[in-house]
Give the backbone structure.
Amino acid sequence: MSISADDIAYIAHLARLQLSEAEKQEAALNFKNILALIDQMQSADTDQLEPLSHAIEASQPLREDIVTEKNQRDDLQKIAPKCEQGLYLVPKVID
């Protein structure tokens, strides 16, 4: 795929850029190089490769699942306005 001067002018218009002729030629060359790199990457043989879920194979170290605080439910329910059978009672707000 090649990029023409009209394509560069259209892209510059969309980006609201004013490019000189030299800048347009440089942009066209840069686009051409990028597209050539994409073509080169697409021609690589990847049939024997497995897809990765992430670009970097890393694992998340996890801490042990150990209880570090005591159960304070009874203490907290003592100061609540209304509790019944271990549940907080709240007034009905929706009919």
